[in-house]
């Protein structure tokens, strides 16, 4: 990961826009960020972290403090960062949450955090670095960008502050991290999570394979149990078969083959018995069928002879019934014509009487059909003419009847229109007077607005005063705590100094008495470890006050504990001091009394403003309602005037229509009293003419129907055996009697035919034959029972043989599946066991951990190359399986420091502040070296260091600078934050931060 350009405005103490060309600064590989304490050096690192991750390097700090208090309200704060990763070139712009002026009205409103992320092509990158705008916008949503940045950089915010940007208080995090936390960082930056996934997949695959093998083995046991149950084998035999099946022994096949042969022989024997029994059953069934057929034929013969005798006895009665049925059917052609003939004669008489009553227009009474037809046509024409005239006049009769009501309605509408015209005149007068009232209300409201002031500004002042008062109160408490903490720190430093002097004195005392200690170990005739001589003429004496190695070790442990206590307390003092400075800044330099008075004044001012604002709100509401009423009244007058015009026009049209309708009705009624009277007269004429026409045509139809009915009846009597209609009626049976007689005749004829046919079919029998039916039935039953028994025995044998074959197939199928699973999974089980450090692994280290351990060893080796220089050869880093008090769930990523002066390992927590700094720096640089050389990992091209140089003595600082100078040829950029004078002399490329008189800061870049 490489940072190219950082731009910020309105951030921290920097109200103006600041542009930092990191590419130009990093040409030499090393640049300095220098300036007075509190001037804003660390703000630059906060800006980088905020741009990428939307939060500060310290997770407990709020990004709200990013907005510069020195920037005007019109200045929009932002951070703009251009950077590159293995995924490509990108630009990110992010704006912190801040209070901005409202777009409408007065006061401020909260502007939430905003972000934009672009992807840059090579040409885009050059254009952006030159100050242009280019690139493809990827997202403007904070959640999407928050997920995208770790994917692009390969680092979370915590990992970024452990490997790329090392802020105050976080520099030694990776050095002192727990092995499990260190594992997460290494895995992320080296991109070795693939080995974790491979290991997990191997373990899951092996677990699934074992489950599958267990299931298949259970299937073998189930198949063998089924087989044993089928062949009724003893439990010990079943158990032996299961073992043989699992292990693939040959005795399994021998046992299965023997059982198969035994059951096959039993099937063959029972099958032969079935065939013999079935032949006997067929023979007995044939004899029984012949006997049953003979018995049935003899029974039918006797029944038919009895039915023949009965039919002979009923023959005369059926002949008489047949003759009576024939006469009734002949009468059926005559009787239906008698009633129509009589009805047509009566209808003709009625038609003639009606024609005489309505005075049909024929001279001399009712004339011929031709005369009647001619008069009917004339009457129908007259009726049609009168009906047409009635249809035309009925509409005007209704119109004439409605004329009085319409004239009354016109008079009422005229009165209503006159009243509406008067109301409109009153509304116009009211509307003309409203502009003067509106101007008076507006003038009053303007005066109130002038007096009310800015309530939002007053509320903001109160909030700021309240925050300042709280900060001043907390600062007052923190001052005492800082003084007490500083006093404790001085005491602890005295303790540390005394412990260090005691440890050094113990070491010197031991060196002074070393000759006596070595002399005590001399033995006769054994060479001396110093001179090699086997004679020891004057060995030194071991003094009673001699200091042993255990005494030196105990003194060093006391010293280390004192150093750790001082370091811990110094961090606490630094934290308290930082909090005190932050609270004083939030209080604006006011003490508690002044901040309390400022809060009281602000609250009083806000109450006064809000009191005036309440009256202003009421007046604004009144003006708004007055104008709403004016708008409503204007709309109503306009709407009513349009309605009045439309109503006047409608009234005039209706008046003209009524006058025209009155004239037309007078014309249509002629000499009649009204149009309705003329309609009734025409209806009476039409009705009389239509009655005459209808009566004439009815007479014509009745004459024709009477002639036709009389002719049909006479023709039917001539063709029948009857003299007159009464004779035909006497011979006619009713419907039920005729159907009953016909059914009796047909049933007799059918019975006669059936009996004759049956007797003809059985003519060969005499009636004396004997079928011997009982003997045949007994023989058939015995043969059927014997065949059924034989078949059951054969089916049982075949079923058992088939069950045995299926059970054997189940065993063989389960055995084959187990063999396949075991053969296919053997390699997987071995590799999985090796990957998770199982019984087959000699090194007892998991795959993922082993890969990280190798990388970690490379990091430590690269770090030791620089640590040798920085510590003058005193310290080396060494990997251990786990650190003291930090037991890891994955062995191999522990870390300890080897002190080559004492040849003893130490925990990183026992190092002093300066030692911790350069050991951590060596480790961070070593990590960056290995990551850069590792394809597929995170490329750490940029590193920032924000603490520690002031804790180094001149010699250590010289060694650290030698290492940092060596980075210039490595293609990496390291930015250091320090105000140590010697570093200013050594590093020409720099960012100089300077504080202005008003408390804000500015910066200058020297590259």
UniProtKB/TrEMBL annotation:
- Mind telling me which Pfam families this protein's record contains? AAA_23, SbcC_Walker_B
Q: Which InterPro entries match?
A: P-loop_NTPase, Rad50/SbcC_AAA
Q: What are the Rad50/SbcC-type AAA domain coordinates in residue numbering?
A: 5-196
Q: Write down the Gene3D superfamilies for this protein, in alphabetical order.
A: P-loop containing nucleotide triphosphate hydrolases
Which domain of life does the UniProt lineage start with?
A: Bacteria
Coiled-coil ranges per UniProt:
407-488
Looking up SUPFAM superfamilies in the UniProt record yields: P-loop containing nucleoside triphosphate hydrolases
One GO term in the molecular function aspect is:
ATP hydrolysis activity
Write the record's keywords in alphabetical order, separated by commas.
Answer: Coiled coil
Q: Name one GO biological process term.
A: double-strand break repair
The record's comment on protein family reads: Belongs to the SMC family. SbcC subfamily.
Listed under subunit, the entry gives: Heterodimer of SbcC and SbcD.
Q: What is this protein called?
A: Nuclease SbcCD subunit C
Species of origin reads: Raineyella fluvialis
């Amino acid at each position: 990961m490489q940072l190219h350009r950082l731009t910020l405005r309105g951030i921290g103490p920097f109200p103006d826009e600041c542009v930092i060309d990191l590419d130009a600064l990093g040409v030499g590989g090393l640049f300095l960020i220098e300036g007075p304490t509190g001037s804003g050096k660390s703000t630059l690192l906060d800006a980088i972290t905020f741009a990428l991750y939307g939060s500060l390097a310290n997770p407990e700090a709020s990004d709200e403090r990013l907005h510069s208090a020195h920037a005007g309200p019109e200045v929009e704060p932002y951070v703009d960062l251009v950077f590159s990763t293995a995924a490509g070139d990108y630009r990110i712009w992010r704006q912190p949450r801040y209070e901005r002026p409202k777009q409408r009205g007065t006061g401020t409103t909260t502007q939430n955090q905003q972000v934009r992320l672009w992807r840059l092509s090579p040409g885009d990158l050059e254009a952006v670095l030159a100050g242009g705008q280019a690139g493809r916008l990827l997202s403007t949503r904070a959640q999407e960008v928050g997920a995208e940045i770790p994917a692009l950089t390969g680092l979370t915010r915590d990992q970024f502050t452990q490997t790329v940007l090392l802020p105050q208080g976080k520099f030694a995090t990776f050095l002192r991290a727990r092995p499990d936390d260190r594992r997460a960082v290494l895995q992320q930056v080296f991109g070795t999570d693939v080995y974790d996934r491979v290991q997990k997949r191997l373990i899951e695959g092996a677990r699934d394979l074992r489950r599958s093998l267990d299931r298949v083995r259970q299937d073998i046991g189930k198949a063998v149990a089924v087989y044993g149950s089928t062949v009724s084998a003893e439990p010990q035999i079943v158990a032996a078969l299961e073992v043989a099946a699992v292990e693939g022994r040959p005795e399994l096949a021998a046992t299965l083959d023997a059982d198969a042969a035994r059951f096959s022989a039993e099937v063959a024997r029972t099958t032969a018995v079935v065939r013999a029994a079935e032949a006997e059953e067929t023979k007995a069934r044939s004899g029984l069928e012949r006997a049953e057929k003979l018995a049935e034929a003899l029974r039918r013969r006797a029944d038919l002879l009895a039915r023949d005798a009965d039919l002979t006895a009923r023959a005369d009665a059926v002949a008489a019934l047949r003759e009576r049925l024939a006469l009734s059917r002949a009468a059926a052609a005559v009787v239906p014509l008698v009633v129509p003939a009589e009805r047509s004669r009566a209808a003709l008489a009625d038609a003639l009487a009606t024609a005489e009553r309505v005075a049909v227009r024929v001279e001399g009474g009712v004339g011929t059909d031709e005369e009647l037809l001619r008069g009917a046509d004339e009457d129908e024409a007259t009726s049609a003419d009168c009906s047409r005239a009635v249809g035309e006049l009925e509409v005007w009769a209704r119109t004439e009847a409605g004329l009085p009501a319409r004239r009354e309605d016109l008079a009422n509408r005229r009165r209503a229109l006159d009243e509406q015209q008067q109301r409109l005149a009153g509304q116009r007068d009211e509307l003309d007077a409203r502009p003067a009232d509106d101007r008076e209300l507006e003038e009053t409201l303007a005066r109130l607005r002038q007096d009310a002031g800015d309530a939002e500004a007053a509320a903001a002042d109160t909030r700021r005063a309240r925050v300042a008062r709280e900060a001043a109160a907390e600062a007052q408490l923190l001052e005492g705590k800082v003084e007490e903490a500083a006093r404790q720190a001085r005491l602890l430093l005295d303790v540390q100094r005394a412990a260090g002097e005691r440890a050094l004195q113990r070491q010197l005392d031991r060196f002074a008495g070393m000759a006596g200690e070595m002399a005590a170990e001399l033995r006769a005739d054994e060479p001396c470890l110093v001179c090699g001589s086997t004679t020891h003429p004057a060995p030194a004496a071991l003094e009673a006050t001699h200091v042993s190695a255990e005494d030196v070790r105990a003194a060093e442990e006391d010293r280390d504990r004192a150093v750790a206590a001082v370091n811990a307390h110094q961090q606490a003092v630094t934290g308290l001091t930082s909090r005190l400075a932050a609270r004083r800044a939030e209080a604006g330099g006011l003490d508690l009394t002044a901040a309390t008075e400022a809060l009281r004044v602000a609250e009083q001012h806000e109450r006064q403003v809000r009191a005036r604002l309440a009256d202003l709100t009421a007046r604004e509401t009144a003006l708004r309602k007055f104008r709403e009423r004016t708008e409503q009244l204007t709309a109503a007058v306009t709407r009513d005037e349009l309605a009045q015009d439309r109503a006047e026009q409608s009234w005039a049209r209706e008046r003209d229509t009524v006058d025209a309708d009155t004239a037309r009705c007078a014309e249509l009624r002629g000499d009649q009293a009204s149009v309705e009277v003329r309609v009734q007269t025409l209806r009476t004429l039409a009705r009389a003419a239509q009655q005459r026409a209808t009566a004439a045509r009815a007479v014509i139809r009745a004459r024709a129907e009477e002639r036709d009915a009389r002719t049909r009846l006479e023709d039917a009597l001539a063709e029948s055996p009857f003299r007159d209609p009464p004779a035909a009626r006497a011979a006619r049976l009713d419907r039920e009697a005729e159907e009953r007689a016909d059914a009796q005749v047909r049933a007799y004829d059918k019975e006669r035919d059936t009996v004759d046919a049956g007797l003809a079919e059985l003519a060969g029998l005499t009636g004396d034959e004997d079928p011997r039916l009982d003997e045949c039935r007994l023989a058939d039953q015995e043969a059927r029972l014997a065949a059924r028994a034989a078949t059951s025995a054969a089916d049982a044998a075949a079923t058992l043989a088939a069950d045995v074959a299926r059970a054997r197939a189940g065993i063989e199928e389960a055995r084959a599946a187990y063999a396949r699973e075991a053969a296919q999974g053997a390699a997987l089980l071995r590799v999985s066991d090796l990957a998770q450090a199982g019984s087959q692994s000699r090194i007892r280290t998991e795959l993922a951990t082993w890969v990280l351990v190798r990388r970690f060893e490379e990091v430590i080796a690269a770090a030791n190359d620089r640590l040798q220089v920085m510590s003058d050869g005193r310290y080396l880093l060494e990997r251990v399986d786990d650190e003291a008090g930090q037991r890891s769930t994955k062995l191999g990523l522990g870390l300890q420091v080897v002190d080559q002066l004492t040849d003893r390992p130490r925990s990183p927590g026992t190092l002093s502040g300066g030692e911790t700094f350069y050991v951590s720096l060596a480790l961070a640089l070593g990590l960056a070296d290995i990551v850069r050389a590792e394809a597929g990992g995170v490329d750490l091209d940029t590193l920032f260091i924000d603490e520690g140089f002031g804790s180094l003595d001149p010699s250590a600082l010289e060694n650290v600078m030698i290492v940092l100078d060596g980075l210039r040829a490595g293609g990496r950029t390291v930015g250091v934050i320090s105000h140590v004078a010697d570093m200013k002399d050594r590093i020409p490329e720099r960012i100089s931060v300077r504080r202005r008189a008003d408390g804000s800061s500015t910066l200058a870049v020297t590259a």
